[in-house]
Design brief:
This protein is α/β, with parallel strands linked by helices. It folds into three domains: about 10-195, 3-Layer(aba) Sandwich (Rossmann fold); about 240-355, Cytidine Deaminase, domain 2, CATH 3.40.140; about 385-510, 3-Layer(aba) Sandwich (Cytidine Deaminase, domain 2), CATH 3.40.140. Helix content is about 40%, strand content about 20%. It contains 19 helices and 21 strands. It has helices at about 20-30, 35-45, 55, 70-80, 85-95, 110-115, 120-125, 130-140, 155-165, 170-195, 250-265, 290-300, 300-305, 315-320, 335-345, 400-410, 440-450, 470-480, 490-500; strands at about 10-15, 30-35, 50, 100-105, 145, 210-215, 225-230, 240-245, 270-275, 280-285, 305-310, 325-330, 350-355, 365-370, 375-380, 390, 420-425, 430, 460, 480-485, 505-510. Helix 15 links the parallel strand 12 (about 325-330) and strand 13 (about 350-355).
Amino acid sequence: MTDRPITRALISVSDKTGLLEFAKALIDLGIELISTGGTAATLKAEGLAVKDVSALTGFPEIMDGRVKTLHPKVHGGLLSVRGDAAHETAKLENGISDIDLLVVNLYPFEATVAKNADWDETIENIDVGGPAMIRGAAKNHAHVTVIVDPSDYASVLAELQLTQCTTLATRKKLAAKAFSRTAAYDTAIANWFNGQNGEATPDYFTIGGPRLQVLRYGENPHQMAALYKTSDKRLGIADAKQLQGKELSYNNINDADAALEALREFDETACVIVKHANPCGVAIGATSFGAYAKALACDTTSAFGGILAFNKILDGKTALEISKLFTEVIIAPSADAEALQILSAKKNLRLLLLPDLKSQKSSLQIVKSIAGGLLVQSADTVSIDDMVLRVVSKRQPSPQELSDLRFAFRVAKHVKSNAIVFAKDGATVGIGAGQMSRIDSTRIAVRKSLDASGVNGSVLASDAFFPFPDGVEAAAEAGASAIIQPGGAMKDDDVIKAADAAGLAMVFTGVRHFKH
């Protein structure tokens, strides 16, 4: 098959980035331009020769522009197999001319949803004709070049300026990108509709979005990885502004996301330190410096090479203290000039700013790939503020114990199961994560706490119920004074009796926070 010169292009774009320069270059190559609506008006305003699509079809744009390119003279020009006798006859009989290049980017549906537009405006930003043309041109990539992204203008133009043709390899690559774009676009629409209808588990599940970054590698150097953006309206690590440091790695992003999610539990000034997706120190304080010092004291060993997240401005005093420890990533809503100057000496340290740390709760699902399928669930957005706490022990917790219990349970929500968190005075003092038995998580939390201040006088939070009294007994032996847990075990009575025997206060939440 011989590549044919491009002689006619149809351009219809919402994103007009680079449009005029590209269109002028096409005209300079003798390529006829056909266009629609606002795109045609933009080109004509610059004095460029462009033919309205209605002149091509002999049919006016109608219904507020909903119907303009849905016509045989458009789709026949895109879909005809060049050189096929039957197709050539059909074109001749129906006055259809080939369209060799299609340049379309779609109505800004995702941006419309992101700005919380009303129902009618959102519906009007669902593109129909654009995806139809894109799919037709991409299907017929043997003969037609399709561009859906302004970033591809330069490479296509470079080929055209050499031979007035594009290569088959280029057309295949652009076709794949075109189908990926329409798939992601339809995914955004489907997810919006499902959200509007309250469908948590729709009959068909789709996920997609634009690639933001090709990463150096995945969890390990032999794994390939990339970062993509979804239509979740809540801001996250993918939206943060990186001020300095090396490129973020897959593990950096994963850990930073874990730190940010834990940080969002707190309105008070807080610091979260994460290592390998688990919090290794969390604290609240009067200042960022105070919160950091308390969080670091929980586990100074694990904090080495960790991720730090703050929900208040990063000041110079705190930055100076952080600079004493090797840190991979810092996340904060802002940083003052002194902090920026101090951290600038750490060339490899990644500093990320994300002003809207609280934002809104995620409306999307948590997705985990398995062999042959996907596991999908709604995000765990339940807060301890939503729970009805029930004291089940003979002894009532003191106000300070209750405050620490609530703090500890917020943290336990973000620790991998089985999760045990000891806390005292608004700071974690021992964390046990990811063990196969809850008693082992308890023992690990106690052992790690001994490297710091110990757990004497602290409270304990468990992400799920204690199946046996042994965990309670271990906590009491270590010096804990109160426990918060979901309850619901067959041996709840025995667990409560163990708490009473040890003089511990025990609170049930009725809500479990497994995190695998």
